[in-house]
Amino acid sequence: NTDEEIRMIDDLVAQKPDAIIIAANHADATVPVAKKAKTSGIKVITYDADVADPTARQWFVNQGTFTLVGTALVDVVAEQAGASARFAVVSTDPGAFSQNSWIAAMKAQMQAKYPKMQLVDIRYGLGKPAESFSMAQDLINKFRGQLDAIVAPTVVALPKVAEAVEQAGLTGKIVITGLSTPNDMKQFVKRGTVKTVVLWNPVDLGYLAVYVAQASLAGTLKDNATQAKVPAGRLGTRDAIASLEDITAKGPLTLKNVIVLGNPFRFTKDNIDQFNF
Hints:
Layout: H1 2-14, E1 19-22, H2 31-39, E2 43-47, E3 59-62, H3 66-81, E4 86-91, H4 97-113, E5 118-124, H5 129-142, E6 149-152, H6 157-167, E7 175-178, H7 182-190, E8 197-199, H8 202-218, E9 227-231, E10 237-248, E11 251-260, E12 265-267
Parallel strand pairs: 1-2, 2-3, 3-11, 4-5, 4-6, 6-7
Antiparallel strand pairs: 8-12, 9-10, 10-11
């Protein structure tokens, strides 16, 4: 709830902490309270979800650019189904900005690295399990024998796509990958229906955000740094960058004052039991 988040941040600002770390529930609505915190001398770090105005905070700790995520998904398809694979997408809503941006990044990676790969169809599960399952079934029936992979860049759709492929008796015949949580995908990964689930590691993301706040407070990471190395404990170091280009559904996007966690994390049968979320 955006109103509740704003109230909570307001309450925290009144307590005058040295720093505050925010995942903005609503990019625009959170700007005024973030600016209030910053102008009162509090170091404001956003992570996971940024505020719309980068001047309202010091740094944004980004779990992974659209470019990195889209690239990772297409690379998995190429590795497991071949560089000339024919694949489809089961997304959420036709207007979903994040999913459409990941798809735009996937297309850019195909054009750059896999010119023979084909995205043959995109279906929309509308964020509903039953609808996502139905869309996967439609794709399987439409392209029976001619579909090498299905990508589901949505937590809701990926397990339902895996379920549809299992029910169709096509485990091992259609490569499945996408974005989802380990807990939702463990059974399918262990059965071999899905070999790779792509996401970021939320533990590492929060861990990095704390190190960024500490560096900002210590003065080792200046607000106006054009490029700097941020020590991040067990993660090593991460680059703080004043300006970073990304691909989105609405065209190029320039991210300001950003630290990227790194390449998306790959959950496989070898590591998925180590995670519980």
